[in-house]
Amino acid sequence: TLFRSTDMGSSREFGLLLCAEKMASEGGNTATPNKQEMTPQHSELLKAWKRKVPGLEKQMQSILSDKQSTGQPICRAHEDTIMELQNVRKSIDDSVALTDAMLHTVVARYVEGSSETLLQLSAGFISWVTDGDENRQESMPLRFDEKVPEMIKLLAARKSYGIKARNAVLYEDSDVNALWCWEVENTSLLPVAMKSIVSKERQERTKISKKIKSIQRLIQLIEKGTELAKINEEEEKLMKMIRSEEAARQKEEEKQKKETEKKIGRAH
Q1: pLDDT class for 265, splitting at 50, 70, 90?
Q2: Each residue of 44-55: b (16+ CB within 10 Å) or e?
Q3: What is the spatial distance between Cα 66 and Cα 188, in angstroms, rounded to a whole number?
Q4: Mean pLDDT in the chain?
């Protein structure tokens, strides 16, 4: 977590935090003074916050580094996907026209969860379908290589769950810190057995994104240094997420402990 008892700084810094909050409350004004009007107590408090910035930046980078490998396609290897892929290959080999319905299914299952760029994804999909077979490559529909990228964009959106540059090119940016991920709009195209897994992964990515953005916002407010009340508000948003994560971890730990105890009991 971001802040444990050992991470809160000295007792003096924490005392200053309480003092500043009490002063604002007693004064009947929750707004933080502008930088020009800042009291000595607020100045000390801001210094304490600024000392936390390197730790916050390190925590954010740790999350980004940990999640950079999570943008992996999760439906490509499923048995239902392989069966659909074989049907597409057979149609190509038998010179049977490929319907949009057939292609939409395999495209959706190929792209879901991938972090690749559109160019990489399109080339990879064509290679996946043809399986390196030269005859099959020659039998592909006319301008198939142009059709695939448009089909991908029609079926899925590429979303950033991390930190992307302002000038990032949506379909081709490859910055790992952006945590790019393709998500299919119509999940009925995915294997039935994978839908719950896909849903959980999307929920997890959303949580991660909110946490990263909260840390980023907190750092920006500290560096701005003029709105201490907002700093406290943003920290509380972050701590709420961290408390939720900790509670979930504790519950899972307790669950595992009980299961282990049951196994030991049955063994005896």
Answers
A1: confident
A2: bbbebbeebeee
A3: 30
A4: 85
